[in-house]
Recover the amino acids of this structure.
């Protein structure tokens, strides 16, 4: 027979009671908090996994909030651009009406007033603000009005910057939540090969033109000017075509040719234009691309590093039309990264390459051709970036409307020269505003595409959030059925241990000998 001391018996009973009380208390904490893992020590592995899942859930919710903000901004922009399209469509209708030769000066004045209201409406739309009072189309300068009007001349100029408002809508996806005003109201659609003709400001003849035609494969980006001059001997009207090379700026002038009203004048660069009427000696017509080239930077298709490009800048007088390629190389021994710049002249096809230069992440790389670009991150050996011109252009909607309004207010009745000037200006305005309308429609389509992408990302984000919530539930949340069952069992065990202790503590040698 084993003999146990009274102290041992008491301590053993007390330990059993305390153990059951601790278990009951722990189960009460689980039930009151709804969590299976009350402290990390309860299940270290599950606690670590729960922290990761919780962080991922917070990130997913933050991306979802960013997508909501971007969608609201894009929705505001889409509504604004829809109104711009409607207004421009009406303006083009008025331009066609203004070309009616039976209109009197008073009628044209009325149309000028209508166009003034349209210009004011477009000005207000260009200065649309979002729900936070930030100007929608002023780039990253949201506190500044996108466009300002000169109180004296009435000229409207862009007042924002070229920075894009970028929103992180997913872990690996950034999206522009708005567009820069100058890319909407002051340029042609990127890739456009459109040409705009205009009459010389000092023209005195009655020559009018028809919108230029661009042959397939033509429209190299060169600009053309047609100058008229009377033969000093015969008095016959002659013309020459001066071509300005878009890449080099060099000009060439054709030999004089006889002018025949109604015939198409071939510039020799894939662009032709029909001219009617009787030009005066010294008159001229210009046929220009919709603007000067801008540039776009793109990474090489096989890049393996993490380098990214941003802040592409074209210096005044730069943008010669040359193409640039930045190639990176990493020293196999030191690991130092250098880069070279290869410049290709599109006119001659010749290329030149600079000496290797040490690469510093975040510094602006100057191509030497008036174009610089900031590259950040860690490029790998063999990575490259191209910096090439696009055929985007600056076509000022507000300046065109201003010139048109001024022309419509000027008397032209019974004045053939004034009527000719008006006809030519209407043709120029019609083409320019049509280019503006096409560009606004293109931007509007881009906005819609971004909204569709946000919807798709929202669907994916919602599914991810549900999955992460389930993971957190599985890792940390309590199973109430199991917990209540365990609580009942532990309470019963506690009652049993207390009853046993009471029975034992009342037992003595004398009571056992009765």
């Amino acid at each position: 027979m084993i003999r146990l001391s009274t102290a041992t018996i008491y301590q053993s009973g007390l330990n059993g009671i305390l153990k059951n009380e601790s278990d009951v208390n722990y189960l009460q904490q689980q039930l009151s908090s709804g969590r299976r893992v009350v402290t990390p020590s309860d299940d270290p592995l599950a606690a670590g996994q729960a922290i990761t899942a919780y962080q991922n859930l917070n990130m997913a919710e933050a991306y979802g909030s960013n997508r909501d903000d971007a969608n609201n901004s894009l929705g505001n922009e889409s509504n604004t651009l829809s109104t711009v399209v409607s207004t421009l469509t009406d303006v083009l209708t008025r331009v066609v009406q203004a070309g009616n030769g039976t209109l009197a000066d008073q009628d044209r004045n009325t149309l000028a007033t209508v166009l003034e209201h349209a210009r004011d409406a477009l000005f207000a739309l260009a200065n649309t603000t979002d729900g936070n009072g930030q100007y929608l189309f002023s780039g990253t300068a949201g506190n500044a009005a996108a466009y300002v009007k000169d109180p004296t001349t009435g000229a409207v100029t862009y007042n924002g910057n070229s920075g894009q408002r970028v929103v992180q809508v997913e872990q690996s996806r950034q999206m522009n939540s708005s567009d820069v005003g100058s890319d909407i109201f002051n340029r042609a659609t990127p890739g456009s090969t459109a040409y705009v003709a205009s009459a010389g400001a000092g023209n005195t003849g009655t020559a009018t033109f028809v919108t230029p035609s661009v042959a397939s494969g033509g429209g190299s980006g060169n600009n053309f000017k047609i100058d008229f001059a009377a033969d000093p001997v015969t008095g016959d009207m002659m013309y020459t075509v001066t071509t300005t090379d878009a890449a080099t700026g060099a000009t060439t002038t054709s030999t004089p040719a006889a002018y025949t009203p109604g015939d198409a004048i071939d510039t020799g660069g894939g662009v032709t234009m029909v001219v009617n009427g009787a030009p005066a000696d010294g008159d001229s017509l210009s046929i220009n691309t919709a603007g000067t080239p801008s540039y776009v930077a793109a990474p090489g298709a096989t890049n393996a590093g993490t380098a990214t490009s941003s802040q592409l800048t074209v210096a005044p007088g730069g943008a010669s039309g040359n193409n640039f390629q930045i190639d990176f190389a990493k020293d196999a021994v030191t690991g130092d990264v250098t880069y070279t710049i290869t410049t290709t002249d599109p006119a001659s096809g010749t290329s030149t390459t600079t000496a290797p230069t040490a690469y510093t992440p975040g510094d602006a790389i100057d191509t030497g051709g008036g174009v610089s670009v900031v590259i950040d991150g860690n490029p790998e050996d063999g990575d490259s970036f191209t910096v090439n011109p696009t055929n985007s252009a600056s076509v000022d909607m507000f300046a065109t409307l201003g010139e048109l309004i001024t022309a419509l207010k000027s008397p032209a009745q019974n004045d053939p020269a004034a009527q000719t000037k008006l006809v030519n200006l209407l043709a120029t305005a019609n083409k320019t505003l049509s280019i503006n309308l096409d560009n606004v429609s293109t931007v509007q389509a881009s906005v819609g595409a971004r909204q569709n992408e946000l919807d798709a990302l929202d669907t994916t984000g919602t599914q991810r959030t549900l999955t992460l919530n389930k993971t957190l539930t599985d890792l940390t949340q309590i199973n109430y059925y199991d917990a209540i069952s365990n609580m009942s069992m532990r309470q019963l065990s506690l009652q049993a241990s207390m009853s046993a202790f009471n029975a034992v503590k009342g037992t003595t040698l004398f009571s056992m000998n009765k």
